[in-house]
Amino acid sequence: MNPDGEMMKTDQQSRTDQQTNDPTPKATGETIMKVSHLKKYYPIKGGVLSRVVGHVKAVDDVSFDIKEGETLGLVGESGCGKTTTGKTIMRLVSHTDGEVLFRGKNIFALSKSEMKAYRKEVQIIFQDPYGSLNPRQTVGDMLTEIITYHQLASGEGVQQRIRQLMEMVGLSDYHIGRYPHEFSGGQRQRIGIARALCLNPRMIICDEPVSALDVSIQSQILNLLKDLQAELGLTYLFIAHDLSVVKHISDRVGVMYLGRLAELSETDRLFENPLHPYTQALLSAIPVADPDHTAVKAVLKGDVPSPSNPPKGCVFHTRCPQCMPICSQEIPVMTEPEPNHYVACHLYPAEQQHRGKPEENQH
Amino acid sequence: MQTHLLELKDLTTEFSTPDGVVRAVDQVSFYIDQKETVGVVGESGCGKSVTSLSIMGLVAHPGKVKGEIRFDGKDLTKLSEREMRRIRGNEISMIFQEPMTSLNPVYTIGNQLCEPLRLHQGMSRKQAWQTAVEYLALVGISSPEKRVAEYPHQLSGGMQQRAMIAMALTCNPKLLIADEPTTALDVTIQAQILELMKDLKEQLSTSIMMITHDLAVVAEMCQRVIVMYAGRVVETAPVRQIFREPGHPYTEGLIRSIPKLHEKEQRLYEIKGVVPNPLNAPKGCKFNNRCEFATDRCREAEPALLEVAPGHEVRCFYPRHGKEVAQ
Amino acid sequence: MSSSNLQSPIPEPPVMPAEVTIQRSTSFRDDALRRFKKNPTAIFGLVIVILFLLLAIFGRQLTPFDPFAQNIRNAHQAPGGEHLLGTDFFGRDVLSRIIYGARISLFVGVSVVTIQAAIGVVVGLVAGYYGGKIEAVMMRLVDAFIAFPGIILAMAIMAVRGQGIENVIFALSFAGWPTFARLVRSEVISLKEREYVQAARGLGFHDAKIMFKHILPNCLATIIVYATMGIANPIIAEAGLSFLGLGATSEQATWGFQMSLERQYMRTAWWGVTFPGLAVMIVVLGFNLLGDGLRDVLDPRMKE
């Protein structure tokens, strides 16, 4: 990836060197990030004195962990809180309660210098390829600014690093001097990826990175993300509403509904044996690009309730085909009916918990 | 020989820009029969939406529409604006991608539903209101008597799209053009809307022209598929044929590049590059700069749209499936 | 068609030669220029503004007579004779004095707007970016300034500080900045939700950098448009103040000052007050037309 590898030894370079020695960069199993009981409420103001009259519970008591080198997918429909979760972890919005431990340190209690270090470790890629780049900056200016601000290189090294980044994301040198409006959607998304990679992060939050792209471009970007992960050993939190995309790229998947995590498991297990009625409905709702595919559809009735006034008990009970009396009373807790398969649903009570070695960093 | 409900012959829509003339739609010919659902598929900029606007006679200045649009025996391009208005919303109606921007926020759902009924069918106020309620019930809106008096913002996205569909159907059109009707909706809502459209089609025997980029939606809904690329029709075939034996390398690439839900694959197929700038499209076959099978012949001349199997036409010198035909 | 600029073939680099790249990099500017050229009123405004700017810069070389040379015997000569636009009560050439006044009037306009914009931009940026209490306090201050009639404030300041062009600039700068602050604040509030601003925060940039490097350049178009149109205001206000005797001194002979001297002779020698007035009107018109044209060209909604 770097034609002049000898001349330049950034961390990036040495890191890739290490990976060449280690043939399995994928999921080392060590927890890189642990999210516990994360909450993000937005106040609703009303009345003449703009007093707080209620809360939109965008993220409500969400817990999961991410292992080094893996891709954790977060899926759900609009308003389920997946994007807010990503932005809270990125500390782009403040949190209401709970904690996020990155390598054991609570990111909400970092000092200024620790925060700067955290920014280098965790980066984000956005959805909108048109809004995510500053229209007044060329690609080169943008990357130079980041590199010099964080003093990652100087002099000739800056240009070299930029060329290296461009090559990594599949763009060429002559793109460096161009403005965002000169690029197509897919190319802009590549530039967004280059920006995220610029600081040599260990983890990238991908917030719907391909949902605004055409099908043929979408596969280019998904392949690029996979290649980069293999090359650099990155950890992804991949947020999307498209289940086939999430299935393709993720090692584990979490399904969110109305601010809460409904189910979390390894990708294959989740897609083959979904436990939560919402996941089941979601999976059966996806249209399949195969005219001979005739699955029985469990079409969900009604709409997602408003997150400012979520249903009591289980938030899904208003649409759930298997609703029981308890569902409108009690909020279900996360249980583990199968090893590494977590679900928050009264159909799987805690007594029937799988008796294997529960992973300590889950509930 | 049967007559088609809608038949386009060499439809060309051009826009003159300061940089030159852009042919958004380039000699497009296809037909839609009675009670048929036809999918028009392609990526952004392929001309699928401009095609539908041309049919509706809604191409704004400086666009120019040439060719023939034969609908129910009339050539729509020859009609006056006045005659066109009688067809729009009455015989052909349209559903758009964004329900919120297509509904007028200052009128109630009922008002907006009644308008075409009173205009085209000459119903009385009371009659129209009654029909509006019936149609809201038809599209599965609960307590329609109440909803009919509400404003668009009081409905959820799925409900708005249902109201849009109700509005498009009130005059019992012969053709419904649905431009990405479910793209802005969530999966579970999309499933509801697609089911609804299938049901309604059976009940009302309307033809549907389904414009979408989503091949999965096409597979669920359509009988026949038209694939467009850079303003051109590159392939048209019955839906099963498209998915089983795609003829054009572009169609094949599109199908292969979607992540499959029921298969495990390490890498997705990629179509290299991007859609060409319409002002700077390659010579010969428009797809030649992205095609892995392109030869010098493809860079010299543009292939014609020829039949490779019954009902299956492909614009390619070297179709991937079906018999190769002398061009 | 904006979409025609977006597409370019990747990832096959050789397709596009380097020269093309450089040329294409300016396409937004080319586009803007082309749109500007197609706008006759904007061109007309620009021509007026340039003409007056030239007058301001080369005024001393262009004046047919010394604008201060008094000659009582020549007093109030009608226009058309030796003096193209006539003479004033002291026999000074009206045309020369208008040319001379252009410099001071434009100087007042440009410097007042610059100061107003500088204050307004900082206040608007900070208020819009931080929001909350900071915004509430700052914007109430802005409201208070807007509620107070600007010309009265300026008159009060002039009355305290005395005549002189520096004091005019100081006094007028107090009035216009809140409008800039409001304008910038509303732009900032929408821009800070843009993903590139969020990305900049995610990259750990400090607030000042984000504000001045990533948000400000993107509201510049609006600021330029408003400032161009806003130049007219201080020119008028200065003329008004001078007319009331609260503005320039006699050495600074601005258009307003000239009008104030000559107003008592309006019945007998209309030219003394009319021509400086026309000069004000034409300059104001020029800046307004130019501003309108710039808005058509630079409007952010048209570029994206």
From TrEMBL, chain A:
<dbReference type="InterPro" id="IPR027417">
    <property type="entry name" value="P-loop_NTPase"/>
</dbReference>
<dbReference type="GO" id="GO:0055085">
    <property type="term" value="P:transmembrane transport"/>
</dbReference>
<dbReference type="GO" id="GO:0016887">
    <property type="term" value="F:ATP hydrolysis activity"/>
</dbReference>
<dbReference type="Pfam" id="PF08352">
    <property type="entry name" value="oligo_HPY"/>
</dbReference>
<dbReference type="GO" id="GO:0015833">
    <property type="term" value="P:peptide transport"/>
</dbReference>
<keyword id="KW-0067">ATP-binding</keyword>
<dbReference type="InterPro" id="IPR017871">
    <property type="entry name" value="ABC_transporter-like_CS"/>
</dbReference>
<dbReference type="GO" id="GO:0005524">
    <property type="term" value="F:ATP binding"/>
</dbReference>
<feature type="domain" description="ABC transporter">
    <location>
        <begin position="33"/>
        <end position="283"/>
    </location>
</feature>
<keyword id="KW-0813">Transport</keyword>
<dbReference type="InterPro" id="IPR050319">
    <property type="entry name" value="ABC_transp_ATP-bind"/>
</dbReference>
<feature type="region of interest" description="Disordered">
    <location>
        <begin position="1"/>
        <end position="29"/>
    </location>
</feature>
<comment type="similarity">
    <text>Belongs to the ABC transporter superfamily.</text>
</comment>
<keyword id="KW-0547">Nucleotide-binding</keyword>
<feature type="compositionally biased region" description="Basic and acidic residues">
    <location>
        <begin position="1"/>
        <end position="14"/>
    </location>
</feature>
UniProtKB/TrEMBL annotation, chain B:
<dbReference type="Pfam" id="PF00005">
    <property type="entry name" value="ABC_tran"/>
</dbReference>
<dbReference type="GO" id="GO:0005886">
    <property type="term" value="C:plasma membrane"/>
</dbReference>
<dbReference type="GO" id="GO:0015833">
    <property type="term" value="P:peptide transport"/>
</dbReference>
<dbReference type="InterPro" id="IPR003593">
    <property type="entry name" value="AAA+_ATPase"/>
</dbReference>
<keyword id="KW-0813">Transport</keyword>
<dbReference type="GO" id="GO:0016887">
    <property type="term" value="F:ATP hydrolysis activity"/>
</dbReference>
<dbReference type="InterPro" id="IPR003439">
    <property type="entry name" value="ABC_transporter-like_ATP-bd"/>
</dbReference>
<dbReference type="InterPro" id="IPR050388">
    <property type="entry name" value="ABC_Ni/Peptide_Import"/>
</dbReference>
<keyword id="KW-1003">Cell membrane</keyword>
<dbReference type="Pfam" id="PF08352">
    <property type="entry name" value="oligo_HPY"/>
</dbReference>
<keyword id="KW-0067">ATP-binding</keyword>
<dbReference type="GO" id="GO:0005524">
    <property type="term" value="F:ATP binding"/>
</dbReference>
<protein>
    <submittedName>
        <fullName>Peptide/nickel transport system ATP-binding protein/oligopeptide transport system ATP-binding protein</fullName>
    </submittedName>
</protein>
<keyword id="KW-0547">Nucleotide-binding</keyword>
<comment type="similarity">
    <text>Belongs to the ABC transporter superfamily.</text>
</comment>
From TrEMBL, chain C:
<comment type="similarity">
    <text>Belongs to the binding-protein-dependent transport system permease family.</text>
</comment>
<dbReference type="InterPro" id="IPR035906">
    <property type="entry name" value="MetI-like_sf"/>
</dbReference>
<dbReference type="InterPro" id="IPR000515">
    <property type="entry name" value="MetI-like"/>
</dbReference>
<keyword id="KW-0813">Transport</keyword>
<keyword id="KW-0472">Membrane</keyword>
<feature type="transmembrane region" description="Helical">
    <location>
        <begin position="42"/>
        <end position="59"/>
    </location>
</feature>
<dbReference type="InterPro" id="IPR025966">
    <property type="entry name" value="OppC_N"/>
</dbReference>
<dbReference type="Pfam" id="PF12911">
    <property type="entry name" value="OppC_N"/>
</dbReference>
<feature type="domain" description="ABC transmembrane type-1">
    <location>
        <begin position="102"/>
        <end position="291"/>
    </location>
</feature>
<keyword id="KW-0812">Transmembrane</keyword>
<feature type="transmembrane region" description="Helical">
    <location>
        <begin position="269"/>
        <end position="291"/>
    </location>
</feature>
<feature type="transmembrane region" description="Helical">
    <location>
        <begin position="104"/>
        <end position="129"/>
    </location>
</feature>
<feature type="transmembrane region" description="Helical">
    <location>
        <begin position="215"/>
        <end position="236"/>
    </location>
</feature>
<dbReference type="GO" id="GO:0005886">
    <property type="term" value="C:plasma membrane"/>
</dbReference>
<keyword id="KW-1133">Transmembrane helix</keyword>
